[in-house]
Design brief:
With about 160 residues, this protein is of the alpha/beta class. The chain contains 6 helices and 5 strands, in the order H-H-H-E-E-H-E-H-E-H-E. It has 2 domains: about 80 residues, Orthogonal Bundle (Arc Repressor Mutant, subunit A), CATH 1.10.10.10; about 60 residues, 3-Layer(aba) Sandwich (D-Maltodextrin-Binding Protein, domain 2). Strand 1 and strand 2 form a beta hairpin. The radius of gyration is 21 Å and the shape is elongated. About 15% of the residues are buried. InterPro entries: LTTR, LysR_HTH_N, LysR_subst-bd, WH-like_DNA-bd_sf, WH_DNA-bd_sf. Pfam families: HTH_1, LysR_substrate. Belongs to the LysR transcriptional regulatory family.
Length: about 160
Amino acid sequence: MRRITFDLDVLRTFVTGVDLGSFARAADRLGRSTSAVSAQLKKLEEQLGMPVLRKEGRGMVTTSAGEALLGYARRLLELNDEAATAVRGAELAGSVRLGMQEDFGEHTLTEVLGRFARVHPKLRIEARVARNADLMAQMAAGRLDLALAWNDAAVPSP
């Protein structure tokens, strides 16, 4: 079986088209013509030897192969963008005091902050997990720079 080396530009077009629900909108977003986007999708399907999209009504939906590719494409693009940011030296430095509810802390904290820390190793993030009332009190007291909480009330400036 021959190895396939995916073109990240083609994968970005594929993901953008699926995300926007339209490859014409993807062409606009990416600054390409619709014919260029069509050519990229054709190239992708030729590389795979199978369709990644099929017509449904007036639109296009992913095939089972396209759906499988979509998850990998997102991961490849994320890693590519992370590497590009790190290599370019877009460095943040200093510290941020972040507070969040347990809901956020349990489900997203480790993954999101881990990726962020790899891209910005000179930025120190101090994360605190607490209830809304405690987070609001810490914000009001100036002990947090940012809080992710469920609260409609404005927090007074310290």
